Amino acid sequence: MAGELDHPPITINGEPCPEFKKTFHVSKKVTRARLYATALGLYELKLNGERVGDDYFTPGWTHYESRLQYQTYDVTDKLVAGEIEWTALLGNGWYKGNLGWVGARDIFGDRLALLAQLHIEYTDGSEEMIGTNNSWQVTASALQMSEIYHGETFDATATTSDWQVVETIDHPKDILVAQENEPVRKIETVRPQKLIQTPNGEVVIDFGQNLVGWVAFDIEGEAGQKLVIKHAEILDGDGNFYIDNLRTAKQTNTFIIKGDDKESFEPHFTFQGFRYVQLIGFHDNQLDLTNFRAVVLHSDMEFTGDFTCSDPLVNQLQSNIRWGLKGNFLDVPTDCPQRDERLGWTGDAQMFIRTASYLANVAPFFKKWLRDLKAEQLEDGSIPFVVPNVLIEDMKEPEDTTTHKPYGSAAWGDATVICPWTLYIAYGDERILAEQYDSMKAWVEYIKSQGTNAYLWNTGFHFGDWLALDAKPDSYIGATDRPYIATAFFAYSTSLVRKAAKILGKDEDYHYFSSLEDHIIKAFTNEYVTPNGRLAVPTQTAQLLALMFDLVDNKGKERAVCKLQELLEESDHHLTTGFVGTPYLNHVLTENGMNDAAYKLLFQQDYPSWLYQVTKGATTIWEHWDGIKEDGSFWSTNMNSFNHYAYGAIGDWLYRKVAGLELDEQIPGFKKFMIKPYTGDGLDYVEAKLESMYGQIRSAWKKTNTGIELEVTIPVNTTASIHLLNVDRDHIKIDQQNPENIEGVLLVTNQGKDTVVTVGSGTYEIVTSL
Q1: CB neighbours of 743 closer than 8 A, spacing ≥ 6?
Q2: Which member of 318, 355, 615, 703 has the greatest number of CB atoms within 10 A?
């Protein structure tokens, strides 16, 4: 893009937010007009006072040093004959604002700037281009303060008459890339549930749902009246407004009334995570709940999956998982949306991506983020803990005596391998593997270069089984040996790179990574498996990783399964796992003959469990199993998010095992797939739907007096194998419900104790008798 970058003068740079202006004249009829824009900071454009586009937080958050997105808008209908005033409002956003928990600012740059071009085509064949240059003007806007963590202050009484000439600067243009992800948009509106007067006398609105976005309202009042809205996720045990878990994030929006009839307020460049808002400065006659609304914002993904069942608590859990995605998929996959963090933690993303792929079409969302991950990767192949990386200082956990660099942790850095692989199998697009392949290889080579043993990863800092319940007192890191976890993920990532090499036709790499994987598993066995097959690390997570990643077989596998069962019995059938172990827990149980134990874990309602959170009123997934303790008190205020999607990875098991919607890695993207439901005590019926690239896939089963009725829908141009567990072929009846569209039952075979029905497209009802 040609054009100059408009910089506000140093005196108008963030607080108040700068507003740019350019006036031009349209004297002919317009055939087409396109507007291109980007900024250092966040921008909002208007033509004659009308907002351009429905995108928010543009140009988005990227690795700004190498990638700066621009957006394209069709503004043909906004260019009518006469004078046009083009304005642009800028905010600090991720580029210049406060990021991280150490108060860092200006991480990517210290001055805001705008770059824009307007291309106009007229009916007479002529064209005109208007861009940012020194003919623009700038002033301090009525937006007095804007920070992602802290909120905004808007003074409607402020004037914008002191217009100054802009300063133009040179800035690299080769970093510009077109919008890649679906932009952040207003997705839905949530209305207030009730108005509360707390024991402390606070006036609070309860929206009934922990969400991410902002509160908009309409109001009438006197000029200069100052209205303050604070945001919180929960009330404390006494029913008072609780914000201690926000740490330094203020999450406060302030509006100063102009006093001209009814006014409307909503923020521009900030977002809040909240269910409750405290109203300060409002008069009693201004508290009509119909004037308030919560606007939900997130990346505008197409939602593709739906899961319902006979248990209302499990249905609420599913809702909580979905709202966790909504709240944290805002341009980047954030860990939490409320405190002074909101960062793209790599570990959280790889733990949840498989579940996310059932809930929504997340391919564009993650492709964009993975490009930034690749851009942030260091020359030695290591990956930062967060992407984009804003952790500018070395880190030290409470139990550590030394500091460590903010990159290179097992299970976190492995996102560079696990995420592309998951996108490939979920959507069948080899291009994501081709694009990320060098990054995937570099990460594995980085691990191999650590320490004196190329096949054991026993050096460096690792988060381990983060927040596991078997941790030592005052520790965030679980009891599972961290080099054990690191080596297990070393083997797993190597296996995925091996598979990617095979798919991409890189035969030499395929053989190399096959050999490397064999060596890692052998080293793992020598280090952590006794001659009798017992794992040396006796934790739930240790058994899970060995079984999930195929690190043990034969006697070793049998002993790991037995040990896992023993550990569950010791914990009275409760989990002790953290971020690393939990995503695999129920899968491993179901796949190793302990499906009853998996169901028992799902239905536990006391601490620790998924449904414990639900019984405590959760409407999103918590960061800690006991974010609210059984006595009503809270976990430590320094890290207690109530909207943290990592443990929502149980959704993957609900779709893939309970409902049975399982893809085939050999023919990915649900071109060929299985429907293999694992029924269990506690559920009378289950229904799951997935809008695949080929159409809707559906699995619905219910228990009857004589057996199970399973109804399935298979899209055109796909093939499915329906696995009926422990059912003889003589005990099934298949009804083709829409025979005009049916390719027919292709094959019914016995596989061990299971009967497999291979079918083409259509809807089938399968009745099994005992």
Answers
A1: 759, 760, 761, 762
A2: 355
